[in-house]
Amino acid sequence: MRVPVSWLKEYVPFDEPVEDVAGRLVISSCEVDRIVRRGVPDTDGNLGRYLVGKVVEAGKHPNADRLQLCRVDVGDSEPRQIVCGAWNFGTGATVAVALPGAVLPDGQKLEQAKLRGEVSNGMILSERELDLGVEHSGILVLEEGPEPGTPLADVLPLSDDVLELENGHNRPDLLSVYGIAREVAALLGNELAPPPGADPPRADEEPVDVQIEDFEGCPRYIGRTFRDVRIAPSPPWLKARLVAAGMRPVSNVVDITNYAMLGLGNPLHAFDQSKLRGRRIVVRRARKGEQMRTLDDTLRELDERDLVIADAERAVAIAGIMGSLESEVDDQTTEVLLEAANFEPLTIHRSSERLRLRTEGSNRWEKGVDPYLAEQAAKLATQLLVELTGARWTGDVDKRHELPERPVVHLRPERTDLLVGLRTEPDDQRTILERIGFEVALDWNVTVPTWRARDVTREADLVEEVARFRLDDVPFTLPQRTVMFGRLTKDQRLRRTVEDVLVGCGLSEAYNWSLVPVDDDPRAIRLPEPLSADQAVLRTTLRHGLIESAQRNVDGGAEDVGLFEIARVYLPTGKKLPEERWRLGAIASGGFRRAKGVVETLHEALKVELRVAAAPQPFLHPGKAARFASGWVGELHPALLDGTWGMFELDLPTLYEAVPDVVHYEDVITYPPVRQDLAFVVDEAVPAGALIDAAREAAGDELREMRPFDVYRGGQVGPGKKSIAFAVTFQSGIKTLTDEEAADLRERIVTALRERFGAELRA
Amino acid sequence: MDVEALEREAQGAVAAASTRVALDEARVRYLGRKSQLKQALRGVRDRESGMTLNAARERLEAAFAAREADLDRAELDRALTEDTVDVTLPGEEFARGHLHLLTQMRREIEDTFLGLGYEVFDGPEVEEVSYNFDALNTPEGHPSRSPVDTFYVSDDVVLRTHTSPGQIRYMEAHEPPVYMVSLGRCYRRDTPDPTHTPTFHQVEGLAVDRTITLADLKGTLLYLARVLFGEERDVRVRTSFFPFTEPSAEFDVSCFLCSGRGCNVCKWSGWIEMGGCGVVDPNVFAHVGYDSERWSGFAFGLGIDRIAMLRHGVPDLRLHWENDLRYLEQF
Q: Which of A25, A49, A708, B55 has the largest count of CB atoms under 10 Å?
């Protein structure tokens, strides 16, 4: 919403700098995106170079067929000679003149010039050159009256500041110049003018035929008829205000409806009454299959939920959104039916969304316009139609359902203080509320103004009305707590440990999108309307994102890449919501051993026993793939990414589950360990892990550690065989092991491995 | 024999010995088997002269030992001076990974609120419309409900557009008082560009207790802003509208780049927009069965990605998602 400050000041005069007023609005009312200075620059006496001129003489330029040579009186002793390219005026016209040295709104500086051999001592201006309109086919011809030499700024709004406001969803009352004026008046403590518009006397008592079939969609419809309307361009002041507010002037009738909307916030519509079949208005839902060509020359298919304004036969407007081309006011129009109605927000919102048609009108309706406002808007438009188009006001009808009562809400002033944390004297609360139109009874029953009836219905809403005027005064305090707690849960602490361990392993943390183009699981949740095909499915594995990220780093020239990600996956359940599980995934150059090493380090750090078993996965190297309790680890299938990559993915809650709450001390200090190296020759297919498991079973707790450190294949062990060397530590927590006891443990291991795997101890 | 003179002479020789060889020679001369002192000791007959001689021997032995240690140390130091390195050459390299900047921010914010006595909680990302909108008092027709802005999974399920539904789930499961923050992924239908990504991270805070006020909210936000941006920061709140708070406000931090003088990051206003906040709306309390007359609360939310971007001068939000090691390794 753009609010020209000169317009605003008509409703609330103020002397404060506009920046200060904007600063107050920002805190208490609405966001101000910026303040735009528009029109003729008001610096260095520039405005003084713009004067009213009277054309004393106008004729063809002697050396150019398309130019006029004029002599213009601007109050000097002698008229000035000015060359002009327009022909829409002649001798006697009152015009706008800029003198040499004037800076134009577009920043250009006007110089004395010679055009085709004739001196031009100034410039006769068009409205576009003054930034007052869009018309540029001729110059701006002013009403007669002001003396030549009158400062032009006295006659036209040459320069203005415009507040560009952003409007929240819940304050439709701020979508008008008058609504902003009300806030400014309250903020500054200044007087607010009464709302603009007063009915002129009615010229006739013609009936106006308005039927509302759907009071729910349209609680109120004021129809007013006018005759002897003369369609013409609007006067410069009106055009200037519309342009400054960001709307394009069209014709006096249309401009007046827009002006009343911008000024008061109630969108209006003007029909050519002679085009309404049966001279009748019916407000109803669209019929099945009904069509209408809107003002933007588009044929619209209507829906039975769309509210339309119809005449006796057909829809002539989509209510609140846009009129039909066929009922439009045009140059020939002499009879006008003015619509000042009220429409229900959701209906307008739905139709506007469905038709993808957003207009200044729909934007206001869908936020909820005060149904009492229609009358004032009708008055303002009526006054202007009569004043500016020569129309006679001939008919008036106000069809309405019972309009909503003004809510009465009880306020406990101490409640404001309790919720805000700042004392505001009850009298001050009363003053604040009254300034913005609330009526506060002695018993603190507060009657809400009609324009706030939608958003102020409860005590908390009144508290906000007071609080928003005091936000800068609210102190900075911390809660007075009645109970103290606050710590991470076990899983949250473990997550940090996991992150730190992985960083310690040399991996960096990646963040990948939850939405992927394809997923392994055909049942994975697919968005019905994704933003793009790349982000269409909720992932059930972190693998794809990690592979892609690794690839991107390789493409970027990285040589050693190690990435991990901790994020949720979304497992389909067949129920309303998927099961969201935290996963850890990683990818690292270096192949299986690096990935396995990270998995081992992680388990060790969390004191979780890791047991792996070979288990193929379609995306892994078939010979280098394993499963463990919470996930898988392996070497990525080389077809999926060039190079040798280790990967793993595990389910974090499963891992956390296995983490002991408390680690108990084991005595590995008091009694000395006995260390031995043992090498066994076994069949190629026997995994080292199976040997260790068997050894543990055979030797019990006194086998403290059995770590494979070398695997040998070759002549000495024979084909199909391998030799695995283990570093073995025997230790007891309760005594020193004797040589005999150590030898016995070793013998138990050797025997067990021989019996189970045919393992032969190498000397 | 003049023991004193002999000892003086020997002490002089100890002090004069400047190498181990010279010291060893002196030791042989004064304490060796054939030395005057040892011979004298062997010839001692009376107790008194024995004590004198032994005392002299002990002093000399100590002197030799001390001198020997000095010479060894001097010798070691001499050897070390020849074994030098160029200390400006790099040390041994360790492969060290890096936490993502957003994880670092997450921890920093979590720690801030843990310190203030809050719990960390996170609800589901795929969320029911009833939690994401209805329970948060979002009216029908509110623009945030539009499929233009929100990813719908089905008519009644969305990808959560904010972490706020977590508030509802938390309150449903806990009696007040409540002090919790919720940090996690959120989703909005924004085409990726330097300042938008369709997935982003939010932190949401909720406090419910007997006497929570708007002033407590301001104080908490100031605390957070100073943790994140420095002790000299200020915070202001501006009126706003959110369906789930009343009064509602947006909060700004004084610009940490220009300190309020005006720059293009704060758009010459001196303030940087941080997020939304307010006093919990009674309708939200009613939904979870809290009594607004007995309890009051505040809530706030802000985007972590954007804060990280501003604080660390990351020019493009999409960098958070590209996982380029050249980006990750900077933090």
A: A25
3-state secondary structure A29-71: CCEEEEEEEEECCCCCCHHHHEEEEEEEEEEEECCEEEEEEEE
- Alpha-carbon gap: B87 to the closest alpha carbon of chain A (Å): 25
Q: Which residues 520-579 of chain A have a CB within 8 Å of chain B?
A: 525, 527-531, 535, 538, 549, 552-553, 556, 558, 560-564, 567-568, 570, 576-578
- ipTM greater than 0.85: yes
- For chain B, helix (H) and strand (E) counts, in that order, are 11, 10
Q: Does A35 touch chain B (CB under 8 A)?
A: no
Distance CA A681, CA A691 (A): 11
Nearest to A188, CA basis, from A38, A28, A315, A56? A28
Q: What is the pTM of this model?
A: 0.86
Fold for the domain defined by B101-328: BirA Bifunctional Protein; domain 2 (3.30.930)
Q: What is the residue-averaged pLDDT of chain A?
A: 94
- What band does B155 get if pLDDT is binned at 50, 70 and 90? very high
- Kindly state the average pLDDT of the residues B300-312: 94
Three-class SS state of A114: strand
In total, chain A counts a number of residues equal to: 763
Q: Tokens standing for B280? A: 């919990």
What is the tens place of the pLDDT at every residue in A18-64?
A: 999 999 999 999 999 889 988 898 888 899 999 999 999 999 898 88
Q: What is the pLDDT of residue B37?
A: 87
Nearest CA to A320 out of A210, A213, A221 is that of A221
Contacts of A254 (CB under 8 A, 6+ apart): A270, A329
Q: How far is B190 from chain A (nearest CA, A)?
A: 8
**In which order are the strands placed within the sheet that holds A760-762?**
A703-712, A721-730, A674-683, A760-762
**Spans of all domains in chain B:** 3-82, 101-328
* CA dist., res. A601 & res. A597, Å (int): 6
Please state the separation of Cα A734 from the chain's center in Å.
69
Closest CA to A447 of A457, A135, A420, A709: A457
What pLDDT does A131 receive?
Answer: 87
What local confidence, expressed as pLDDT, does residue A531 receive?
92
In tens, the pLDDT along A601-648 reads 999 999 999 999 999 999 999 999 999 999 999 999 999 999 999 999
Q: What residues contact residue B107 under an 8 Å CB cut-off, 6+ apart?
A: A496, B99
Q: CB A504 to CB B157 under 8 A?
A: no
User: B249 at the A interface (CB within 8 A)?
Assistant: yes
